[in-house]
Amino acid sequence: MASSVFDRETLLDLSVNIIPLGIILFFIAVFVALPGFEYDPFITTIQMSLLVIPFIGLAVLTYVSGKAITKAEQELEEQ
């Protein structure tokens, strides 16, 4: 069986960041599917940027922290 990048305990630690990622994705989908106002490219770009940029940042932060947690666990097991 192929080993996954993160084990179960690491995923539980990262769920603190995974849940907000899901919430942000929900709001992106809602704002794309059900626009509240008439389409204005400038306003829509700002609105989507305020959701997409934090989503990308949080996704990268979650991945990097997961790798750091996994590395720290491996170092503790070696000692």
Task: Describe the protein's architecture and organization.
The protein has one domain. The chain is elongated. The protein is 81% helix and 0% strand. The model has no long low-confidence stretch (mean pLDDT 87). Helix 1 (8-33) packs antiparallel against helix 2. With 79 residues, it is mainly alpha-helical. It has helices at 8-33, 41-78. The longest helix has 38 residues, at 41-78.
Write the layout of secondary structure elements.
Layout lengths: L7 H26 L7 H38 L1
Helix pairs in contact: 1-2
Pfam families: DUF6684
Organism: Halocatena salina
Protein name: Cox cluster protein
Structural class: mainly alpha
Tally of separate domains: 1
What does the average pLDDT come to?
A: 87
Tally of DSSP helical segments: 2
User: How would you sum up the global shape?
Assistant: elongated
Helix content: over 70%
Low-confidence segments, given as residue ranges, are none
> Nearest-angstrom radius of gyration?
18 Å
Tell me what portion of residues adopts beta-strand conformation: under 5%
**Strand/helix succession:** HH
Distance between the termini: 26 Å
Give a count of the beta strands, DSSP E runs of length 2 or more. Answer: 0
Biggest sheet overview = none
